[in-house]
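Subject: for your reference before the review

Hello V.,

The reviewers asked for a structural picture of the protein, and I figured it would be easier to keep everything in one thread rather than splitting it across files. Below is the amino acid sequence we used in the manuscript, unchanged from the supplementary table.
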Amino acid sequence: MPGALELSVLGAGPAFTDRLGAASAAHLVRLAESAVLLDLGQGAFPNLVRACEPASLLAVVVSHLHPDHFIDLVPLRHYLRYQRRPPSRVRVLAPAGLDERLDALLDEPGFTAAALDVEHLSPGVREIGPFRLEAAPVPHTAQSYAFRVSSADAPGAAGLVYSGDCADAAALLPLLRPGDTLLAEVSFGPGPVPADAQHLDAPAVASVAAAAGAAALLLTHLQMGFDPAATVDAAAARFRGPVRLVTEGDRVAV
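And here is what came back from the structure prediction:
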């Protein structure tokens, strides 16, 4: 179908895990021959290399500045600078401060800028090649964003909404349209979420998906110690559409 998106899950794991094959957040969104990447957490870079030529990415879009959502920008930077001949560059959209954090990690001013063109994210809509990217702030860190990705040439078509990490599922409602697919973190599985945790559980995201008329619900970022089946069941009790817990290697048509 013209304008149809495809999601490839390169990483769906949390910040730490005992599960093999659980690279952290990294979600490749394709539209025909073009691709953008939502987050690039630890362990996800090898999966990116296997999925596409990293230098061909139109952009890497980072939801917030926790390492499990951006730290594999370091191997991406090395790949672009040292593996590619001639060296390549990739655009990165991220909350303010990303480049300073990566430079400090290596104690090398200019480390990031050697291969990554970093732009500061802000709320609103922008076009990236054939993609329409809408960013909306969500509560988690001082600067955290959720995203809606759709086809710029088919504004009425279904899109993919990605929560990033989020403390209030209702903050996703401004992005969601009827028929969208919601890709949401469920760190605390079937719940409840502890009062001091800035994350979501399955009942919360399922309620929002149902209220918005989403077509499908994809669950991700499940923390160590929570039961996957119970998490899916908790979501399915509140959302009548398709529900699945995505794992590394999954491909989903949107």
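For the response letter, the relevant points are probably these. The first strand starts at residue 6 and ends at 11. The mean pLDDT is 97.

Happy to draft the paragraph if you're swamped.

O.
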